[in-house]
Amino acid sequence: MALPRITSPHTKGNNRTQRVMLTVLAATLPGVLVLTWLYGAGTLINLAWASIVALSFEAVILKLRQRPVQFFLRDGSALVTAVLLALALPPYSPWWLTLIATGSAIVFGKQLYGGLGQNPFNPAMIGYVVVLVSFPVEMTTWPVPHSVSFTAGLQHILGIASLADGWAQATALDVLKVNKSLTIDELWANPAFGHFGGIGSEVVNLAFLAGGLFLLHKRLFSWHAPVGMLAALAIMSLLFWNGSGSDSHGSPLFHLLSGATMLGAFFIVTDPVSSATSNQGRLIFGAGVGILVYIIRAWGGYPDAVAFAVLLMNLTAPTIDYYTRPRTYGHRKAERGFKLGE
Description:
Layout: H1 17-27, H2 29-39, H3 42-64, H4 69-73, H5 77-88, H6 95-107, H7 123-134, H8 136-139, E1 141-143, H9 150-158, E2 168-170, H10 172-178, H11 184-187, H12 201-217, H13 224-239, H14 252-256, H15 261-268, H16 279-299, H17 306-323, H18 331-341
Antiparallel strand pairs: 1-2
Helix pairs in contact: 1-5, 1-12, 2-12, 3-5, 3-6, 5-6, 5-7, 6-7, 7-17, 12-15, 13-15, 13-16, 16-17
């Protein structure tokens, strides 16, 4: 009888995959609640639809690969990918956009590499980049907070009708990127801006910060990658911050509280599979993400850059691991003894 080869982590123990994934899902609740308060049922619909798509694609691919379907569906990894991706997508995203993003994340970001633990790239970011590159208008247009009714939002999701004028807007990062003439003070009169970052996004970022601190308290990951990313982003934005002129790229506080900064810092760069493994390596990995986020935001072609930055640093993770390997205890002593024996 052929036994299925199932790699660690296993189903037993305090740190089993299912328990870890459920804890991560619990940590996203503050962000989910704030997004729902701001945009209504749009975020909840994204979450429900993305979860159904992710589990369906996961089951089909596992069946084709002749792997135990129920065992891998129960580990919760597909559900975490779906939730993180749904939270990154604009509320009331068209159903086909969520379908393409989630399907790409599961198939091309995870299962084609062999499943959980073998993917070199973050699956959620793979799905996000696929739809961002393919459908930039839909991905950079967010509803105005507290403006879209459930009926209008549902019609937009199903493709029956578009959001009415005044119900959708560009993000603050996008407005800042295309600005050529207005000062920062003049830009702040734009409805896309809030107090420190984009309207709504500053509160959302604080909510994900709270969830991330909860995960740190639970010791699901170390502080190195999040601190590395946030510190590097803050330093870069401080170094290149030229006040409130029309050519300003925004203050450190603006960059920390806009876009997907906190979601990326605590839920994406902390991925144990596609990130570096040592503490020093995680710090370098996170700092690299923070630097790339600012470079792409300020001088690249896309307003937000967390997904691109993470995927680029995923490519460097093996090299970072190679140069930051912790010293093996007794290794130098053994080498010295071997040379004396010669």
